[in-house]
Structure formats: C-alpha cells, structure tokens
Amino acid sequence: MTLRIGIAGLGVVGEGLLRLLARMEGPDSGAIMVAGVSARHRTRPRGVDISGFAWFDDPVLLARDPGIDAFVELIGGSDGPAKAAVEAALAAGKPVVTANKALLALHGTALAELAEARQTSLLFEAAVAGGVPIVRAMRDSLAGAQIDTVAGVLNGTCNFILSEMEATGRNFADALADAQARGFAEADPILDISGGDAAHKLTILAALAFQAAPNFAAVTLEGIERVSPADFLFARQLGFRLKLVAKAVRRPEGAVLTVRPTLLRLNHPLAQIDGALNAIVVDADPIGRLLFTG
Predict the structure, then answer these.
(1) Whether residue 286 has a cis bond before it, omega within 30° of 0
(2) Most CB atoms within 10 A, among 174, 183, 208, 234?
C-alpha cells in the first residue's frame, strides 16, 4: 500500500527529505509517494526538482487535501501557517509528522489533545537532536523507568561556535561569522545563540521525561553571546570544558529547566561533544546513565 504524503516547507530539511525519498531503493521504494508540496516561494532555486508534484500556495489546503494520507510539516515557527496547517491536518484525521520544536514547545498539549480526539498521530522525532532517536527512546523504551535528569548539548550552532572559540582562541563574533560562512548558523542566528532553540527542545524532552505538559515559560535561559576567550582559559586551568547545556531535573516541588553555558568536568560525557554534534544524557532509575549522540 502506498502512503501519499504532503510536505509543507521546502527549506534545508524539506529538500533533504525529498532527496532521501528520491534515492530510496528496494522492495519498499514505492511505499511513499509525495502527493503535494507547499512552500513560501514556488520558483525559488532548489537542489531538487519539484515540478512533478502538485503545488499548494496555502499549506492549510494541502493539509486538508483528500489526496494525501499524512501531512509533513517542515515550515517552522510556533504560530502562523505551521500551526494552522498542523491543526487542519489533525482536524481532518490525518497523521502529522513535524520537525517543529517551537510549535510543540508552545502548543504541544493542545495539538496532542486534538490528535487524540481525532484518533490520529502527532509524530515529532525530528524535532529534537536531528537524527538522534531520543524521542521514541524516552517515550517508549524508557516508559518503565523513572527519569530523574535529562541534559544535553542540543544546538549544533552553539556547540560549533564554542568548540571553535576553545580551539582557536577567537572571540565570539569571529567564531559566529565562521559558523555562518560554513552554513552552521543562520543569517539571523539569534534563536540559536540566545539558547532559545535549545530551550524549545528541552521543553519537549522534559515533557516526555516527566510525563507533563510542555512548559516553555519554565525554562531559565542564558545564551552564549557573553562568552569570551578568557572563559575557556580559566575553564582549562580548572580542568573543565565550557558547553551550552540544556538540563531538566526532577524535583519534589516540580521540574527545574535551565539552558546556560556550563562548566563540565573533562570526564563528563557531554564534555566530549565537539563541533556541530548533539548529545543527550539521561539518568533514570533503575537503568542508570544513558548517552545518545549523533
């Protein structure tokens, strides 16, 4: 049986998905068919050919189209067309796959309730840590464990900048410019360097870990803009490394969520994560410590 999908959002992630589907081979190669696409600009140069797909100017119309079986939302943003399209697909009883961490951090509870009411699925593995399979592991594989702490290096842009500053002694502005030149940072990098992107992801992980509603407002947030080369010098002298760490801790009075530059001992698993890599450490009873990276 062929699954007909509609894809809204043809940026880096959307184009990557189309390339992946195009090169699928084997007995299941025909199991997924792109039945329609939507993006902000139809004629923008892209690395993939979209001329063979039905085009929708409005992603909401694509989400409701009877010609698709499932809706893939890769637009981004917590509100606007992304939220409207996901709501439309779920209301129509269509499964939704999304990589939109901001949408889930702010509206995840309402969207999950809508999916449950329409007896359909809201799937979001790609919303946290890219290809690292942390969402399913926490939701399913660790369902019988009590997760006490989840901590991670969750933003590749920030980790690249900090790694470059440490390795070269350059200041923040120079390392950021290098990250932008290499494509690791956006032209407007504020969501990354402020810690906001990591906070969105942490909100989702904390909700999974503690079986609670996402609460982005509960995150205490500090970005990397004020980190200086001297900070790495002092950290090295003391036997530490400096990373932007997103951390959620179970407390009797409620979960404590923080995103901030953090000194890590050299033997800490997150201290070994360099460049644009992501990593997540989960401490759970009775399993102990688990490390997910990629």
Answers:
(1) yes
(2) 208
Residue 186: predicted pLDDT: 79
> Is 94 designated active site?
no
Give me the residues paired with residue 291 across strands.
281
Length of the chain: 294
pLDDT of residue 249: 97
Tokens found for residue 19? 């390339």
What's the pLDDT score for residue 25? 61
Per annotation, catalytic residue among 83, 94, 201, 247: 201
| Structure confidence at residue 2 (pLDDT) | 87
- DSSP per residue, the chain: -PEEEEEE--SHHHHHHHHHHHT--STTTTSEEEEEEE-S-SSS--SS--TTS-B-SSHHHHHH-TT-SEEEE---SSSHHHHHHHHHHHHTT--EEE--HHHHHHHHHHHHHHHHHTT--EE-GGGSSTT--HHHIIIIITTTSEEEEEEEE--HHHHHHHHHHHHH---HHHHHHHHHHTTSS-SS-HHHHTSHHHHHHHHHHHHHHHT----GGGEEE--STT--HHHHHHHHHHTEEEEEEEEEE--TT--EEEEEEEEEETTSGGGG--TT--EEEEEEETTEEEEEE-
